[in-house]
């Protein structure tokens, strides 16, 4: 697995980023339960879609810069919708050898364990200034070389910080008492999707915030259920045809937990409804992120 770091700059350093990272779409709302882009090129956001009244939640809350660890393009998209600018960095982590994935195991425990492990890796890399080359400092998400991809030296981007918050996240899909992660093969993706018409899948996503240097943390888990039409399972070829159509459209099916791409119009044809929000299913609940930020603000105030 790979952990990607997006440095989200607060009011003290946002001037170093292009305003094209801001998008005006407001956060959605849902109930949060405390304790995974999957977007084709044709669906990608327009980086020039800027709202003059857009505000950065970090600036509003008076929080220090934020570092997000995720290899998911949808999480980048969601952060843009939240009007949060960022810088992208990458840190490798072996996710498959962490946590319990056996049938009947607790998915909330798994995603929280993984999100914390990603956080530990990012904190270590950032504090050690891993890498020597200039990384993706303009927040456009483009990483052109191996050197840039694994560079975690923030000073190479002209950013010197003694205080910041690390945000890491993880998500799995559960279906019929089994935990489903990213499919290893196209056939496995088809097997996953074929179950969804009769066994509604759920997404389980964890987010962890860790403040540096105090190591104060907040964390939470958000869940959502996707109710698919029985048509997806009634016809033996429906699931296979859907995956084939997605692949023909260059959709990154193998990069999605459970092969789920609810934001794609081909998939939406089979969805009757979602108990939760689409951003939660896509890998990052906006409300959970904002809730944990508010909790972090309170904790930092109490420790001052």
Topology, pairings included?
Layout: E1 2-8, E2 33-34, H1 57-61, E3 66-69, H2 73-81, E4 87-92, H3 107-127, H4 146-149, E5 164-175, E6 178-180, H5 186-195, E7 202-212, E8 217-228, H6 231-234, H7 238-248, H8 265-268, E9 271-275, H9 278-281, H10 286-303
Parallel strand pairs: 3-5
Antiparallel strand pairs: 1-3, 1-4, 2-8, 5-6, 5-7, 7-8, 8-9
Helix pairs in contact: 5-7
Helix content: 25-40%
Radius of gyration: 19 Å
The largest sheet is:
9 strands, mixed
Q: Termini separation (Å)?
A: 37 Å
Give helix and strand order, one letter per element, not per position: EEHEHEHHEEHEEHHHEHH
Uncertain parts: 1-53, 132-136, 138-146
How does the overall form come out from the CA principal axes?
Answer: elongated
Number of strands: 9
The quaternary state of the protein chains shown equals single chain
Mean pLDDT: 76
The SS-based structural class is alpha+beta
Compute the number of helices. Answer: 10
Task: Give the amount of beta strand, in percent.
Answer: 15-25%
């Amino acid at each position: 697995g790979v952990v990607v770091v997006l440095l989200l700059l607060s009011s003290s350093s946002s001037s170093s980023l292009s305003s094209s990272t801001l998008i005006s779409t407001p956060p959605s709302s849902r109930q949060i339960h405390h304790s995974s882009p999957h977007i084709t090129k044709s669906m990608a956001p327009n980086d020039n879609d800027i709202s003059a009244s857009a505000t950065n939640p970090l600036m509003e809350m008076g929080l220090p810069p934020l570092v997000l660890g995720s290899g998911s393009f949808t999480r980048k998209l969601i952060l843009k919708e939240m009007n949060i600018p960022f810088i992208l960095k990458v840190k490798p982590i072996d996710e498959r050898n962490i946590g319990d994935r056996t049938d009947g195991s607790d998915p909330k425990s798994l995603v929280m364990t993984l999100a914390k492990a990603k956080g530990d890796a990012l904190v270590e890399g950032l504090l050690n200034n891993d890498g020597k080359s200039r990384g993706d400092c303009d927040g456009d998400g483009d990483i052109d070389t191996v050197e840039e991809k694994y560079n975690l030296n923030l000073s190479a981007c002209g950013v010197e910080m003694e205080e910041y918050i690390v945000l890491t996240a993880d998500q799995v899909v559960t279906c019929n008492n089994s935990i489903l992660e990213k499919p290893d093969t196209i056939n496995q993706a088809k097997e996953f999707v074929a179950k969804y018409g009769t066994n509604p899948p759920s997404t389980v996503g964890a987010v962890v915030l860790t403040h540096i240097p105090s190591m104060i943390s907040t964390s939470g888990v958000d869940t959502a259920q996707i109710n698919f039409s029985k048509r997806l399972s009634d016809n033996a070829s429906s699931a296979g045809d859907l995956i084939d159509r997605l692949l023909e459209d260059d959709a990154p099916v193998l990069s999605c937990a459970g092969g789920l791409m609810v934001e794609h119009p081909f998939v939406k044809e089979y969805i009757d409804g979602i108990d939760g929000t689409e951003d939660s299913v896509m890998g990052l609940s906006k409300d959970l992120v904002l809730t944990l930020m508010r909790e972090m603000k309170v904790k930092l105030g109490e420790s001052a």
